[in-house]
Write a structure and sequence with these properties.
- The chain is an all-alpha fold.
- The chain has a domain of 65 residues.
- It is built from 6 helices and no strands.
- The protein is flat and about 50 Å long.
């Protein structure tokens, strides 16, 4: 139980830290946020629980391919916020775009024989 609480608080602490830093220094928060902290934490927790390096390798390979469809959202969010009239519509459109790009990525990977 203590281990899961440690995982929970450390993982959540990263998100809280980024949002608090962003209030004071957006550039610093953007740099921290751009780091693959979620992936790195997941690799650490997964390895600590399984000691399976091959699993981590497969997970990293899959993560690479699914990071790609998320990138356009970050580029489009400022434009979407202006065009759609605020955060929530832009956020929803960004999520919809990302979901569509996930499906496109999965179809392209399957077509090219890449197995995750």
């Amino acid at each position: 139980m203590a281990y899961y609480l440690l995982k929970l608080f450390l993982s959540a602490g990263v998100i809280v830290a980024v949002t608090e830093i962003a209030k004071r220094n957006n550039a610093a928060a953007s740099i921290i946020h751009s780091l693959p902290l979620t992936s790195l934490l997941a690799f650490i927790w997964l390895y600590a629980e399984t000691r399976d390096s091959a699993l981590i390798g497969r997970h990293a390979f899959g993560t690479f391919w699914f990071v790609l469809p998320t990138l356009p959202m970050f580029l489009l969010m400022p434009w979407l916020i202006r065009k759609l009239g605020g955060f929530w519509p832009a956020f929803g459109a960004g999520i919809l775009l990302t979901v569509i790009l996930y499906f496109l990525t999965m179809a392209l990977l399957k077509k090219t024989g890449v197995e995750l």
